[in-house]
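To close the chapter, one final illustration. This time we ask the reader to focus less on the individual chains and more on the assembly as a whole: which components sit near each other, and how the overall shape emerges from the parts.
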Amino acid sequence: MAAASLQGSLLKLSGVLDHRSVVAVRQEAERLLRDAGQAVVVDCSGVEKSNSVGLSLLLVLKRAAAARQQTLRIQGLPHDLQQMAQVTELTELLV
Amino acid sequence: MTSDARYAVELKGVSFKRGERFIFKDVDIVIPRGKVTGIMGPSGCGKTTLLRLIGAQLRAEKGEIWVAGSNVPALSRSDLFDLRKRMGVLFQSGALFTDLSVFENVAFPLRVHTALPDDMIRDIVLMKLQAVGLRGAIDLMPDELSGGMKRRVALARAIALDPEILLYDEPFVGQDPIAMGVLVRLIRKLNDALGITSVVVSHDLAETASIADYIYVVGDSQVLGHGTPESLMESDNPRIRQFMKGDPDGPVPFHFPAAKLADDLLGGGHA
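The assembled structure is written out below.
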């Protein structure tokens, strides 16, 4: 089960983010982003397993935040997503 | 489940025939999870057939083929469809859709197998093309690409769905030395970074031995031997030694069976 939740300005992603679950999580995360204030932190430490769609979700949130003049920082990227970010040369874009 | 979780693929007592001829007879093979395993052997020995058995494009006469925890011959059609999404295949020919751009070729499996919106499909296509060094070629058509670039686009497409197992069918055939070096590096990089299990079917010895953690040598409808590339180089088995060292003559003879040369030339044989 994958989910997005908000605590103040901390947007937490959790569970297994795959091709099936990501669309619903994206909708929820984008909705929560609107109430997350100016400086948002996306916490991925609760993501149990993911793949390219997890990185795409983070890019979607980055673009949405930028369009709203919010700053968005990502923390707690799990090992599998770090490895994938490295192979796809996204590490610097996902800070 | 598989008998051993260390293996991504297990073939147990597998036999496969074409007509009356055995291509494989009671073959046992295990493919370690997260490693690069080479399947090697002379042309025509059934290496591609082996990949097709693993991918369930062919059905074995006998035996069990376990892939990612499922016995493939026993799967229903829909379970097989789901299992195939967890496997990527790099075909020998590349098999790009000639009427689709590079972008659409890589996007194809995502459009067919997922309900992702267009912006996420674009993200993933760009990521995969970046991984193979061809993001700049996104709008080109396949006939505008070199042979090596086609193979790399096909690789980007093969990893579009983040497969657990990646099957490579003769990835080095027809590639120039630079393209070959790029592919060797990519196969190893994707395997190690993404935790993929890679099965490389090839008769290109140097390239396969340079990236494989483990190699099976097949021929005569059996597994002739298996081990690390280094251990196979030192094998006592003359068939394996001939293949690994590329000797022109040996148990696989240089000459196709024929009458004695003297009989043919001096004995008044047919003109």
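Residues 32-54+81-266 of chain B form a domain with the Rossmann fold fold (CATH 3.40.50.300). The mean pLDDT of chain B is 86. With these observations in hand, you are ready for the problems at the end of the chapter.
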